[in-house]
UniProtKB/TrEMBL annotation:
It comes from the Bacteria. SUPFAM superfamilies: Homo-oligomeric flavin-containing Cys decarboxylases, HFCD. It comes from Erwinia aeris. The lineage of its organism: Bacteria, Pseudomonadati, Pseudomonadota, Gammaproteobacteria, Enterobacterales. This is Flavoprotein.
């Protein structure tokens, strides 16, 4: 099962804290999927980044550009940041950005990245960032926690996320668990912003070093 805390009111501050190491950096944002319901969370994060002094460049996936997401994004842009540049293009060999942000990523794009299929905008930008040593931050959309999701699909999504995390891609506030026991290490905790919440799951095993880091960072643990 994939578990993440309620980030709807705190995603903006979480992303800002994650990126605080590089002030005034350029963040490339790739918006995927066709569901406009997840857009408010994404736009709150973009506003926080903009107000913190980060430059933004937004890329819309093919599906997003042909759906209601495009219209909602345009309305927000006209009201908040009319000067914000956006496009629908694949990355070029040389691109100026310090981090890649994939908010509310679609299941399709997540699978393509994990399977090394660089045939859509999100996966192309992800592989560009990986090849050039850029930090990648990913948050999950509602489809990943849908109650009706078949168990086999949950297991597969768990494997995809685990693959991406093994490449150094950051999923703030997200833990994964399978039918076995989940092991949370010091490296896992170091990816979490200080002062945020973590829901590791009922069967999780937390190493002593990870427990010390949880206390040091004042991370709140919620057990199912």
């Amino acid at each position: 099962m994939i578990v993440q805390p309620d980030l709807s009111n705190r995603l903006d501050s979480i992303i800002s804290r994650l990126l605080v190491r590089q002030r005034q950096g350029m963040v490339r944002v790739v918006i995927t999927g066709m569901d406009p319901r997840v857009l408010p969370e994404t736009l709150a994060a973009l506003e926080a980044l903009s107000q913190a002094g980060y430059g933004l460049r937004v890329t819309l996936s093919h599906s997003a550009s042909l759906s209601a997401v495009y219209g909602a994004f345009q309305c927000w842009r006209e009201g908040f940041a009319p000067e914000l540049l956006y496009d629908t293009r694949m990355p070029q060999a040389e691109e100026e950005y310090s981090e890649l942000f994939l908010p509310a990523i679609s299941g399709n794009s997540l699978a393509k990245i994990a399977l090394c299929l660089s045939d859509n905008v999100a996966s192309a930008w992800a592989f560009h960032a990986l090849c050039h040593g850029r930090k990648i931050i990913v948050t999950l959309g509602d489809e990943f926690t849908h109650a009706a999701l078949p168990e086999a699909m949950r297991e597969q999504l768990h494997r995809y996320i685990a693959t991406l995390k093994s490449w150094g891609i950051v999923f703030p506030g997200v833990t994964t668990q399978s039918k076995g026991k989940q092991l949370i290490s010091l490296a896992d905790i170091r990816q979490q912003p200080a002062g945020t919440a973590l829901r590791p799951g009922r069967n999780a095993l937390i190493t002593p070093a990870a427990q010390d880091e949880i206390r040091r960072r004042h991370i709140i643990l919620y057990k199912d």
